[in-house]
Each structure stands twice: as C-alpha cells, then as structure tokens.
Queue: 2 jobs
Job 1
Amino acid sequence: DKKNNPLISKIIYNLKKDPHKKILSDGKKFITSSQFLNLSVLNSTKLKKIKSNYIPIIVDRNIESVIAIFAVIFAKKTFCPISKDFPEERVINLIKLLKVDNVINCSSKKYYLKNIASIDLNTDQKFNKINYGSLNEIFYLLFTSGTTGNPKGVKLSFKNILNTLTWSKNYLSWSNHKIGVATQFSFDISMFDLFSGLYFNVPIYIFRNPSNPIETFKEIKKNKITSIFSVPTFFSNFVRYNILKKKMNSLKRIISGGDFFSHKDIINWQNKQKKVDIFNVWGPTETSIVNTMYKLTKKDKENILKGKSIPVGKSHPLMEIKIIKDKKVSKKGEIGEICMLGNCVSKGYIENDKNSKNYFKFNKKKAYATGDLG
C-alpha cells in the first residue's frame, strides 16, 4: 500500500517523525502531528460504514475541517469540500448531485439536512491500521462553476496532486517556512497549501478572517507566516488599507493566482516589501490547481512600468503545455488554445458534463483544453 501511494505514505511518515511538532493551527487552537494523525484515523472508522463513496464536508476556517478531510481519505472515500458561505439552496443542490445522505458539518452554521455527522476532537484512543489508497484513486471532488454557472464536480486523483507537488519543488523551497492559508477549503488553492504543508512537513496556520487585512497582518507577524498563496484581491487589500508600509519581517513570498494581479498593486508590493518574492501562477481546477509558476524580477518591474504584461511561466515535463489550433500544435507566434497534457489532467467530471469534450487524447497522452488562449 505504501508503495502504491507515496503521497499519503510520505505524509504519515512526516507526522510520525515529528510527533510533537505543532503542525496545524486555526488561531483558536493548535494540534501536534501525532494528534493530527490520531484524530484523522479515529474519525475515519465511523466513516467507513457509510455506503456512499462521496462524503461532502461543509468546511470552515478551522482544524475540524482538515481533520474531516483526512478522516475521509483514511476511510478510503472521496471528500467533497463545500463552503459554509454557499447559500443553503446551493449546498442542498450539490448534495443532491452527489446522491448522498451523509454530510459532515464542520461549521457552526445550522443546516436542515438529515444524517449530519460531526468530527470528534476529544479522543485519546489508539489506532491500528491506516488505509493508504492507491495513486490512481479519486480522493477528492472539487466543485467549480466555471463559465456556465452550473456546478461541475471535478474528480482528482492522488496522482494529480502528487504530480503538482513534485513539480512545484522546481520553484519553491519549503525549508524554514510556515504556510498561511488564506482561501477557503472549498477552493483548490487551499488544497495546494494543505498538501504542501503535510507532504513537505511545513506548519500550517489558517487565517481566521482573511477578508480583514488589518487582522491578517497581525496574524502574519504573531505567527511568523512566511508563505501565502491566494487570489490577487487578498494581496491588493494590503495596498488598499495602506498596510505595506509596515514591516512583515517573517514573510518571504506571496503566490498569486486565480485572477489578474493589478500592475499598480504589484509595484506597491515590490517597492514596499522588497524582501518578499512574488510568484505569478496559472492553472484550472481540472488540471490540479496550478500548472505554471513565474517569479517576478526587477526586469518585470521595468516591463510593468512600460505597460507590458507579466508571464505566468513556462511548460515543464511534469506540466506539459501545448498551444493547439485546429487540432494541431500552433506554429511559432501563432495564437491557439492552451492545453495541458499528462499526469496533471484530472479524471473528468462526476457526471457526463457537457464540458467533458474538453478532455481528450493528444499524442497518446491525457489532455485538457483549458479554454484560455496562448
């Protein structure tokens, strides 16, 4: 089993190696590596009895949500994170789409749903066996509305996320880092944070209210956060609230993706937080979170001031990109659709979504047409 799933076996190895390490905190409480592993496995036992393979989790910004995610993984089921901020009607519709009865509610919000399970954080029992699963198994389902507005459940395998983490090592070092989680656990950026932290043995801190940059700034300083991956709006709020003039000694890098980062705000970060590296990234949920990464340089600052756009990065053997036009690779200088190839490509949608045609084979490799132009 360990050989079949190096992602989970490495995470378990890290948790056992440093049992007393404060691996996860949500601002109210923290848990050590051994507590994290114990609670995840113990909570998984009751989930194994559930008939459905899909287990939706109403997630919040707390430790319970992370324990729930790993309890589902250890139960060899597929977790489906759903934000507590979604309207209840949308939550009910997503659960209907999954055709399940059981829901884990990790929020304080009340739902009029049957069979709501809970996560227990107060047990000292010991566990025996851990289920690792295999690399090709689907272990989480992420809902994205895409351009249609209708929820699409994207099926992602252990192999997808392991490919992303292995590729990311070419750009990111995790030595002496602490991750600040700014996005909700129903958004794929948070999956990069969560699995990077546990796979590379990096402590994780969940910001309590990331929409409030003043409070978040205090949390960054107090908890010595070094790395934050979020949407541009999160970083732009630090400019809006004039926070960048204050010292953030611990912060080493910010990673921005999911939208366009305002050039004016990038310049502000570069001018006022000179020691902070800025990474511009791109990638759709269907190809496992993020597919390109680019570290900004002084030269990019000059280009921005000239009105030029900044790159998102290049193709890499683990994140192979082809620009395709009329089913053929575009010629040099020609515009075409950005397509991702290989192990980053997810297993498709939960149902025969009309967008399933975006998944295809190219040069005998799995491929996904992103809809973006390059």
Job 2
Amino acid sequence: MRLTKYTHSCVRLDDGGRALVIDPGTFSETQLALDGVHAVLVTHEHADHLDAPALLAAAKADTALRVWAPAPVAESLAQLGDRVTAVGAGESFEAGGFTVRTFGGLHALVHPLVGAPVANVGYLVEGAVYHPGDSFMVPPVPVDTLLIPIHAPWSKISEVIDFTAAVRAPRAFQIHDAYLSDIGGALVDRLVGTVGATYGTTYSRLASTESVDL
C-alpha cells in the first residue's frame, strides 16, 4: 500500500486498483489528491479538512465517487444523495475496496470560550493506517502506521508526545502541519521522534505530495 501525504491533513492510499483519500481540505492539493479516486473519508467539517466545493466538483465529474463522513458533513453534502454516507464511532465498512473502522466521535476541545467540539471520526484503514482527524483518540487496537496531528490550536506538544507514546505504532508520519514554520517543524519533529523511539515508534516527516510504500 502506498501512502501519499498532501499539505496539512490530506492523505491518499493506493494499493493496486484501489484508491482512497482522507480529508481533502482547502490547504491541500485537493484536485491532485482526488484524481481517479472513488472513495473519500472526511473526519470533520472544518475547511482545512474538507474543501466542499472541490469535493462536490470531483463528485460531479466522477459519478462513481462516494464519501463517508460524520453526520453534519454528510448533511452539508446532501446533494450527493446516497453517494454520501453518515458514519460515527464504532462502525466498520468498506470504502474503495479498503476495510475501514471508525473511532472517536468528537473534535478535541480548542477552548471552552470558542464553542463545543464538533463531530470528528478517526479512521483505521486496512487495520493498519490510522488517521485521527482533529483528536488524540487512541484506538483500542494495534496500529501499524500512525498519522500524528503534529500542531494545532487545540493541542500542545506534550499531548502530541503522549498520543504517540500511547498508540505505540511501529511507524508514524506527521499531519496537521500547515501552521508550523520550517524552524518550528524541525523542533517538533525532534521532540516527537526522540520520545517516540523510546516506545518503538519510528517517526519520519513527509513533504507535501511525497509518497512512501507501507
């Protein structure tokens, strides 16, 4: 299976004739990521994870494209009809030929004064690759490849490190990194990589549009 990382939190998984995209947001190379893909998973409604106009345009151009997302997102994409499926935590289904399990349920809290957390679903694809969206929900199952939200308005570095240590995936890559400068990113990488290694996790940074074979 090949994983391609796009800017911020968008990733694409390819395996032979199968292809799936998670979180094609407005910060990402959405059109490139969605090219030839028939299955899209959306973790939550925020624009940096969902470029709705781009996704709807892709769905219009490709009538085979289907979307799985939390209920508020599914409702916002209602014009897709039965091509969009609302999902919550604790479900299992097939998307684009990949098996998918869902975890979590809520976005991490930014601040009580900002408002209540929105719905957020984390996805474990093929029992191997885990994308938590905007949360530090630790799935109660083994994870081979962890995608770590490395920097966000709702997190601090100690929580990022705790999440990495708790999941204990053999391999990890960064997501949710568009807010970091190169200098800040290097510092965060060093901290997460050093602590992660003590728990058996090899952490590596992927550049935008870079791919790695899992």
